[in-house]
Design goal:
alpha/beta; Rossmann fold; about 300 residues; 2 domains; elongated; four-stranded parallel β-sheet; six-stranded mixed β-sheet
Length: about 300
């Protein structure tokens, strides 16, 4: 679906001044993040939106018309000097957020359903100041003069052979079982989402079983692409270098949606080798990182 959206926008890019894309609420951050990688340096607004409730369910108080009108308004907005929203963004409630930094906070009906990760939640992902314009809040970094370089399209995405392992609630038996499943299934790419205060030991302590940390290293040494994200908790350049030396890819300060779709984009580049994919995943792209690719995995 994400690739189809990118191709449709590419085919119609010269015909329209802006684009509005609708999707189911839980998929909006993923859809927006995917487009931010496949449509590079956009000089036109590409705005995603959705609704908490649908009129098809019999609820006539749906917020879909308000969100759709707001997205269209921003897509057609121009400043006095010709500035516009020139990015992939997400509009919900009364907020316009950078698409690959938006996180779903709740399934409520208010304007706080989505937040800019880095504004309301974690300062490490802060890109610009949230400003108020015409009664709506937006990331000031989205407003700029259109770039002179042409927009580049690369609608490629492959998550068919990737696995997301969730360790964000701490170390659990299910998390270790998922890693063991990855070993047996031979999937070539994994994204491991770990807790913010997570620290990985290179060697087990005396009497300790071979845990999830060493299993991840085993996968990397087998030639798998193992990316680690730990919830916007940057570490040091030394830890970053050590993680790379061990074969893991410490992703920078990105949202889970951005990390997952960025992995899919890297796997979709058929002419890239493993090292090219690693370099792409650990570095900022499309303003997705708040800390310029500092390590998100610390070894102790």
């Amino acid at each position: 679906m994400w690739v189809e959206t990118a191709r449709l926008i590419e085919n119609k890019y010269a015909d329209y001044d802006g684009f509005v894309v609708t999707d189911e609420i839980s998929l909006l951050p993923y859809h927006a993040s995917a487009l931010s990688y496949m449509i590079q340096d956009p000089n036109k607004p590409i705005i995603l939106t959705g609704a908490n409730t649908s009129s098809l369910s019999g609820n006539f108080l749906t917020d879909n018309p308000r969100h759709l009108l707001g997205a269209v308004w921003w897509a057609s907005w121009r400043g006095q000097r010709g500035e516009r929203i020139a990015d992939v963004s997400l509009f919900f409630g009364d907020r316009l957020l950078q698409g690959n930094r938006a996180v779903l906070t709740e399934y409520g009906a208010g304007s706080d359903t989505f937040a800019a990760s880095g504004q309301e939640q974690d300062r490490n992902l802060s890109r610009g100041t949230m400003i108020v314009r015409d009664g709506m809040r937006l990331d000031a970094g989205l407003i700029r003069l259109p770039a002179e370089q042409p927009t580049r399209f690369n609608p490629a995405m492959n998550l068919d052979n990737a696995l997301l392992i969730d360790l964000s609630s701490g170390i659990t038996f299910s998390g270790i079982n998922h890693i063991e499943l990855a070993q047996s299934s031979r999937v070539p790419a994994l994204l491991v989402d770990v807790a913010a205060n997570y620290r990985t030991r290179v060697e087990p302590r005396v009497g300790e079983k071979r845990g999830e940390a060493l299993l991840m290293l085993d996968l990397a040494q087998e030639g798998r692409l193992v990316c680690v994200r730990n919830q916007c908790q940057p570490s040091s350049h030394e830890a970053h270098a050590l993680a790379l030396a061990k074969g893991l890819v410490p992703m920078g300060t990105v949202t889970r949606a951005a990390a997952w779709t960025k992995l899919g984009y890297a796997m979709g580049q058929q002419d890239w080798n493993m090292e090219q994919r690693k370099r792409f995943l650990e570095r900022p792209f499309a303003n997705d990182m708040g800390c310029s690719g500092l390590a998100t995995l610390a070894f102790g």
